[in-house]
Amino acid sequence: MKKWSPFSTMPEQYIGLKEMINKQVEVAQPVLTEEQMEQINFTLIEALHTNKQVYLTYYEKGQYITETGFIQFVDSLGNLFIFIDDVFELKNKLRLSELIDVRLA
Q: 9: burial class by Cβ within 10 Å (0-12, 13-18, 19+)?
């Protein structure tokens, strides 16, 4: 690795390049229609009452993230819900405004 050592003398350059690449990959948060929000609300309530697994797609830090899990709690007045992810079985809190899509598994 000695042949690459002269290029690693400026770690700030690598940090700056990484930030530039991350900014290019970012996407804007989509604006949902009223019909899409109603469909998400209906699916959340159905999954909560029937204890069915759902695929959640939400927006976080310029990216779309899809996870599977079970809905545990929905608070429409507080604009948040709690779901338990399928992989690590951890409780996650999310805002309803960050949701993009919810589908039953």
A: exposed
